[in-house]
Amino acid sequence: PPTPLFVPAGAQQTFSSSSQLDISACPITFYGKTYRQFYVNSTSESFVVCFGGFYSPGGPHDCLLVTPPDSQRASLEEPPAAALLSDRLPPLQTSLALVSFGRLSALYLYTTAIRGYLDTSGCFYSGGTRPSGPSGTAGSAGNDSSLLLSGVIYSPGSQVNSPETCLFLNCSEDLGLQVSACGPLERCQGNGSCIEAPPQTPMPRRTCTVVGPAVLDVHRQMRLVEDRCSYALLSAPDLQIVATFQERRRKDVGFLDGVILQMGRSDVHVSLDPGGRIRLNNLTMVLNSSAQRVYGVEVSKDRTGVTVQVSRSNLTASVFFNGDSVQLHLEGPAVPSLGGLCGNSSGTLGGVRTPEFSSTGCETRYSDAVDASINCTSMAERCNVLKEAPFSSCDTDPEPYITACRDVLCKYGDVDGLRCQFLEVYARACSLSSGAALEGWRSRAECSPPVGICQDRTCGPNEFCSETEPDGQPRCLCRALFASEYLERNTLGGSTVCRQNSASLSLVGCLLEDKGIDYTQLHLNDPACRGQMNEQTRMVTFSFNSSSCGTEVLNNSSHVIFKNTIRGQNVSSDVTRYTQFHMDSSCAQTQPDVQTVAFSVRGRWSTVVQLATSGSWNYTLTLEAFTDAGLSQAVQSSTELQLNQRIWVELRTHGLEETTVVMVMDSCWATDNGTSIYELIHNGCANPADRTVQVERNGQTASSVFSFKMFSFSESSGDVHLTCRLKLCFRREESCSPTAGLPAPVLRLLLFSPQAEGPTGFICVFMGGSLLGSRVRSLGGCRWI
């Protein structure tokens, strides 16, 4: 904090934080003690002046707590007589005046907008002008303190006697300030006498309550919400309070799910979500029992729920939401004319629906089977407890609450703490209207204390939180509409999602909990492969491919099938109980077609790129030639290739999962534009008749590599084409291993030395004794393209 500024007596001392100020030039007497210095500091609620030391709650020092000033700085004036204080005040500052009258003292806190005058008689007047009359009249309003009345500080011996206002004042040096005036329930007749004031018309006060699907408006009329839309509970010119509804255990009953406060502009709203989460324009707020103020709204949170206080010029609204019910306590002239479900109950639901907070199709109503286990007579008896002690001591009419309780429980059942919620809101309504505490009602009705059991518990968008039987622990349960599509198929999750070479299966977290299954104990064939919970959707997903998590790969003539199983067991902590779980998941993929790729060996060189599609398989094939075994020197259009030079050819697939799928090169052969054919690869193996052909890699990864020495067909000047045939297979298939298959042909290669310039030799190709190719002429400057 900055160092306090000490100046001579009669001048100004400025401070902006906790400060110790010297007043020895003008000592102050406070409660019989004289002080020559005092201490100033501020808290979140008060501006504090102490004598003897800085303020601390419960401390030993004498202190004055006053309303905190608007500005962040203050100044101390020690004014001489007949001095106009405000002439020396810095702009936009708050000033603190201490005035000593011997054994009596006065404290005055004011801003530069308040000008004060201290005359020679020792009376300090606010307003900047000296009042008329020998004893003065009250000036403009200021902050009250020990000898300050309506902005006027009176010196010892001063008296005021005003019949018009019935005010008698005597400032006695021995007795202090004595004031006589009309009481708070009286009014002055203008002749010095007081009479009893006529009773004031009380401000309208009303309570609106929502429990489950039941809305009890300020007129004590009930309405049931049977869909899953959002509705305005209260509509005022610059305030709208909206309730959102969702189904829970039944499709035909809507339940209160959240509250939204929209203030002034439509883009400013505070959302009260289940679990006690508060969002300001979708940003989560961190709250505790200490209230926070945002956009003129005071928000606080404790173990029982969230409270919001909103004040407008003609309306004060207090909103309490605990995740299952909301109660609005309304006060002010605007209450009788309020719109929304809480106010005007004669309109239709559609008239107060809020589309901006409702989902498409939310108004659709669903039917559900009657729950034969519900005894409506028994439900009515449980609700009629509101007619008995201690509820009977409340002057709030219980009939609307009993009717709502009976109608909802007869359809929904006494689950999710619903009965106790109706009793709870009635008890709170009694407390708000008359202050009745209704001691002991919870033990009599067998209801737990009002602790938000689902507070800070986050469930998915298709779940709601409720306590479970018999342990009473909070749990996320499935909403009826969401669960119905799975229950109708007698499954705990969706269908297997098959992709090109992988699969996944998602189980519904809340359905697993309903069955008492702990998802962390589930795994695939490989125990290391476990499901992952999505915290947003609460879905548990298991993923695998053909070569992971113990997947079984099966083959038939048209499809490749890979299969896995979700399995596991639960062991309870109290007894040895095993719940077996077994769920198969499989994908059938169409066998990928055999693909061929070809390129020319003379003329201009370019890498061959070919897109391949076969059923669900989509990938790219490339064929490229290199002059080195490391496949780093690709053959370009400018590369000069010599006869008998070794060339490496790579066939590669792109867009496939190499850990799952491998490529098998089945065969490769060279042709010219005519009928000449020379086979290099047959059934995945090198042509045994040509020892220059070598298979470097095949059936191991997503690429295959082979090499051979350059040649050309004799008596052929056209392009030489290389064609390869390949297939895809899963790693676990036996067909991934290249085999010779049919017997390889017998090839004989004969090389002759020429007698003259020209070709360097002749190669004749035979197969089984038959001439397949004609003379092959060597070319000294052959190019690959």
UniProtKB/TrEMBL annotation:
Can you tell me where the transmembrane regions are?
none
The residue ranges of the ZP domain are 497-743
Q: Does the keyword Signal apply?
A: yes
- Which keywords annotate this record? Disulfide bond, Signal
Which named protein is this? ZP domain-containing protein
Q: Which organism is it from?
A: Oryzias latipes (Japanese rice fish)
